[in-house]
From TrEMBL:
Gene Ontology CC entries for this record: cytosol
Official protein name in the record: Indoleamine 2,3-dioxygenase 1
One Pfam family per UniProt: IDO
Main location: cytoplasm
Reactions the enzyme catalyzes: D-tryptophan + O2 = N-formyl-D-kynurenine; L-tryptophan + O2 = N-formyl-L-kynurenine
Subcellular location(s) per record: Cytoplasm, Cytosol
Enzyme Commission number(s): 1.13.11.52
GO biological process: 'de novo' NAD+ biosynthetic process from L-tryptophan; immune system process; L-tryptophan catabolic process to kynurenine
Source organism of this protein record: Myodes glareolus (Bank vole)
Length: 391
């Protein structure tokens, strides 16, 4: 990671800003916009009404009647992120509609496919709803005392709101761990044991705090609504038997294309901490490491580059193992333990929200993760690899 000569804290803020990482909300988009220019009101109107339009069977008709708009008027990162989020939500609703297997659309009409691909290319994001869209950019301050709400959601009652907002709160709580990353790198570079111990302590505290937000999921999200409704709208068209060839983006390409469904493997927080702490996931064909690497392509480019820059720096873990004093080793282990306990709790959540509801289904089929892997094996492997990093 590039180092500035300024003081570690000032330098670290400047380094993080360069990678579009905010000191308050971390990888989340600070102050997302809520409105598009008047010409685009149709996109916002439809995206804001997906549950109603799907329920009364009007969604696809409304989308088909949209004019094909030029995105030239959509200036600036925030406006483009809002438009990308709105079109992502409309795309998922248009493809999956009322969730019946015989009701899937294999062609996305040109009036949204063309601007959606143009915005995706501008932003370096995939033309499918991603974590960067519906968690990191899908929020607003509801009132002056800081209550938040989502901008868009899907059928399933308050399930989408709870799922996206709790994830955002975890991201924001864990952002103070990211603030400490440049300080860790600088302390290793200067072999400053005390500074390194303090930075690790800040990371461990941040992860423990993030876990308390994680626990709110059970208050806000109903497992059956999540599994039977919301999950369908987050599904992608890569290795998905419901869209075996992928989705045809009319007016963009002549052949259908495959893109993976939304995944929190697209969360930069966890991947960043894995890299910093030297946690290696099992690799090889179809492995967790391969899946997580692929999910980086679905992140905003600046965040993808931050992870790459972190990977190219000196190994923090090597330094702790070879030169760290006992306090540094303990502080390092507390950070790893913080990630282990988050991932153990997450496994419990997945049992409640996926394994149990899916066993209530007739076919009781294998729980497919995004990207077609068996998700429990994936998550257990990721948790075990974290546990194995304890010194
Ligand atoms: C109802 C709640 C949740 C369910 C059912 C759930 C389910 C899953 C599943 C199935 C995966 C496997 C990969 C994928 O398909 O994305 C996954 C991965 C992941 N989830 Fe969740 N999740 C939930 C809540 C959360 C929350 C609140 C967070 C915190 C931001 C989170 C963070 C992650 C991360 C970081 C991964 C990638 C694997 C890892 O780094 O451990 N999840 N989750
Ligand atoms: N059966 C089944 C089955 C059920 C769920 C999944 N995967 C899944 O929901 N991934 C997303 C995810 C995981 N953890 C978290 S926190 C925030 C998000 C999000 C998001 C938006 C979509 C981008 N996520 C796989 C299989």
């Amino acid at each position: 990671m590039a180092h500035s000569e300024a003081s570690p804290m000032e330098g670290s803020n400047r380094i993080l800003e360069e990678y579009h990482i905010n000191e308050v909300v971390g990888f989340a988009l600070p102050h997302p916009l809520e409105e598009l220019p008047p010409a685009f009101e149709g996109w916002i109107r439809i995206a804001k009404s997906l549950p109603e339009l799907i329920d009364n069977g009007q969604l696809r008709e409304e989308v088909d009647q949209l004019p094909t708009l030029s995105i030239d008027e959509l200036k600036g990162h925030r406006l483009q992120r809002l438009a990308h989020l709105a079109l992502g939500c409309i795309t998922m609703a248009y493809v999956w509609n009322q969730r019946r297997d015989d009701d899937v659309k294999e062609v996305l009409p040109r009036n949204i496919a063309v601007p959606y691909r143009q915005l995706s290319d501008k932003l370096g994001l995939p033309p499918i709803l991603s974590y960067a869209d519906c968690v990191l950019a899908n929020w607003k301050k509801k009132d002056p005392n800081g209550n938040m709400d989502v901008l868009f959601t899907f059928p399933g009652g308050d399930c989408g709101r709870g799922f996206f907002l709790v994830s955002l709160l975890v991201e924001i709580a864990a952002s103070s761990a990211i603030q400490a990353v440049p300080t860790v790198c600088s302390a290793v570079q200067h072999q400053d044991q005390k500074a390194l111990e303090k930075a690790f302590e800040a990371i461990a505290e941040s992860l423990n705090n993030a876990r308390t937000y994680f626990q709110r999921m059970q208050n806000f999200v109903d497992p059956n609504q999540f599994f039977n409704v919301l999950r369908i709208y987050l599904s992608g068209w890569k290795n998905n038997p419901k869209l075996p060839n992928g989705l045809l983006y009319e007016g963009v390409s002549d052949t259908p294309e495959m893109f993976a469904g939304g995944s929190a493997g697209q969360s930069s927080i966890f991947q960043c901490l894995d890299i910093l702490l030297g946690i290696k996931h099992s690799s090889g064909k179809g492995s967790p490491a391969e899946f997580l690497q692929e999910m980086r392509e679905y992140m905003p480019p600046a965040h993808r580059n931050f992870l790459r820059s972190l990977e190219s720096g000196p190994s923090v873990r090597e330094f702790v193992m070879s030169r760290g004093n006992e306090d540094v080793r303990n502080a390092y282990n507390n950070c790893v333990q913080g990630l282990v306990s988050l991932r153990k709790f997450h496994l419990e959540i997945v049992r409640t929200y996926i394994v149990k509801p899916s066993s209530n289904q007739q076919h009781g089929g294998e729980n497919r993760g995004t990207g077609g892997t068996n998700l429990m094996e994936f998550l257990k492997s990721v948790m075990k690899a974290t546990e194995n990093a304890i010194l």
